[in-house]
Amino acid sequence: MGADATWRQVVRLALPALPVLAAEPLYLLVDTAVVGHLGGVYLGALGVGAIVLAQVSTQLTFLSYGTTSRAARLHGAGDREAAVAEGVQATWLALVIGVLLVGVGQALAGPVVRALAGSGPLADAAESWVRIALIGVPMILVSLAGNGWMRGVQDTRTPLKLVLLGNAVSAVLCPAFVHYLHWGIEGSAIANVIGQAVGGALFLRALARERVPLAPVPATMGAQLRLARDLVLRSLAFQACFVSAAAVAARTSIGAAGAHQVVLQLWTFLALVLDSIAIAAQALVGAALGGGDDRRARRLARTLAEYGLVFGVVLGVLFASLAAVLPRAFTADPVVLAEIPHAWWFFVALQPVAGVVFALDGVLLGAGDAAFLRTATLASGLIGFLPVVWVSFALGWGLVGIWSGLALFMLLRLVTLVARTRSGRWAVVGAVR
Question: Which domain holds residue 107?
Answer without folding.
Answer: 3-423
